Amino acid sequence: MDHPNSLVPQKNIDLTSPNNSNHYDVIVIGAGLTGAIVAHQLSASKSVLVIEKARGSGGRLSSKRVSGLPQGYENAPQFSSASLGCDEFSLSTQTVHTYLSRLCTDALAMTELDDGYKCAVKGRSSAWTRALIKESSLAFHERVQSVVMHDGIWTVTTECLSEQNISKTYSASHVILTTPPKQTIELVTAQRDAMPLLKGVEHSACWLSVLILEDLPAYRKAIETFNAQLSPNSMGLVHCQVFAELDTPHVGAEKARALMGLKLFADEGWSKENADADKQTIMANFVTLLAELLGVSVDQLVEQITFKHCHRWLYSRPMGSTCLPNAYANLGAGLMLAGDYFCGAISGIESAIISGCEASQQVIAENALETEASL
Ligand SMILES: Cc1cc2nc3c(=O)[nH]c(=O)nc-3n(C[C@H](O)[C@H](O)[C@H](O)COP(=O)(O)OP(=O)(O)OC[C@H]3O[C@@H](n4cnc5c(N)ncnc54)[C@H](O)[C@@H]3O)c2cc1C
User: Fold this and answer.
1) Could you tell me which CATH number the domain at 1-201+319-375 has?
2) How far, in Å, CA of 92 to CA of 71, rounded?
3) Is the N or the C terminus of the chain less surrounded, counting Cβ atoms within 10 Å?
4) pLDDT digits (tens, 9 = 90+) for 24-39
């Protein structure tokens, strides 16, 4: 069967027939880390189509460049780095470590650190996730709108975002959704009742600010005291996180030593109330709150600030719950949910990798059973 990488819009296809050119063994929805892992695992033995609403792969691994930040980027998970200097991230399970070691390509260079399974991955996440899915057929910039069963075959309908009003349909024996729970429920309407755990999940967004200021010992102490009073999951009024180290090629080592980076998170309620406020107002609020916390005047604090940035951050996980362990499921008849929400590993990245591997294994096991049954 021919599986072209660029798929031409087609309508009114007979989806009940697995012989049409838009039929695949497996359709993976989402080209984030989970989707990329699934595609990588299955494309050797199955025809796989990956559908992604963004223009490229990476999902929440993607970093956003912000000029002026010492690292040159923000919003990037710590284990991968777009820049040459690489942050480190502790990947604690052997499965993940072994898996990543096997994947090392030019796009994905992994540095092993001395301490257990700590490793760091260099390179743009879009490049190395793309390397993982390169053997699959790809439909980028297409938003999946529904996933329904027709005569034992799954039909996936998408909206083509670059060509307005054009919808496309694909079919498959297996569909693996790697979308966040809320979207998943919207997509698989007919399976709503089978997903009780997903119903309560909402996304949260919070205002986040990054400030770099002169590192005065008194400030550090005040922030440490403040942090110590917060429970690990609490967002507090303002949660200040002192950057462990500043990776500051632009600032220079000497000056960097005298600087301190802070991430300030507003709590969810406050963020909701201020969802439509402009960034300048939010930043002014952050500075006022921080000045109060540090016991200095706003003017004094402003003098110490060498860099400031503010944005609204959509949480990748539902606040207060680390995962939805029982929701990770094969919902029967070839429909599966995967992604970091459904695995309780230490970090989101580990959860995505493990859950992607588990979903792929499940497809392989199901196929083996089907083959056995047909013999
Ligand atoms: C700012 C930030 C920092 C982070 N830092 C860390 C860190 O340091 N360490 C760590 O372990 N984890 C971190 N994480 C979490 C980690 O990035 C995620 O756990 C992981 O990337 C999730 O991968 P995923 O494939 O499961 O989900 P996603 O990356 O969300 O992939 C889902 C994909 O589905 C696509 N999609 C959604 N709806 C549709 C639709 N209708 N049709 C088609 N496509 C659709 C999305 O565009 C997306 O690409 C961070 C996350 C963020 C946002």
Assistant:
1) 3.50.50.60
2) 25
3) C
4) 999 999 999 999 999 9
> Which of 79, 76, 51, 75 is CA-nearest to residue 160?
51
Tokens 């089907």 -> residue: 370
The structure tokens 């000056």 sit at 255
Task: Look up residue 315 and give its two tokens.
Answer: 């949480």
With respect to CATH, is domain 205-314 assigned 1.10.287?
A: no
Give the model's pLDDT for residue 93.
60
Tell me how far apart the alpha carbons of residues 95 and 355 are, in angstroms, rounded to a whole number.
Answer: 11
186-234 pLDDT per residue, tens: 787 665 555 555 555 555 677 888 788 888 888 888 888 887 776 544 4
**Cα distance between residue 25 and residue 27, in whole Å:** 7
**Ligand 1 contact, 78 CB (< 6 A):** yes
Do 16 and 151 form a contact (C-beta atoms < 8 A)?
yes
The residue to mutate among 40, 80, 117, 179, having the most atoms of ligand 1 within 8 angstroms of its beta carbon, is 179
Domain boundaries, the chain: 1-201+319-375, 205-314
Strands (E), the chain: 23-29, 48-52, 64-65, 73-74, 80-81, 89-90, 109-112, 118-122, 137-140, 142-150, 153-160, 167-177, 205-214, 238-242, 259-266, 305-314, 335-337
Substitution candidate for ligand 1 out of 7, 50, 61 with most atoms within 8 A of CB: 61
Residue 240 CA to residue 213 CA, distance in Å, equals: 13
CA neighbours closer than 13 Å in the CB half-sphere of residue 120: 16
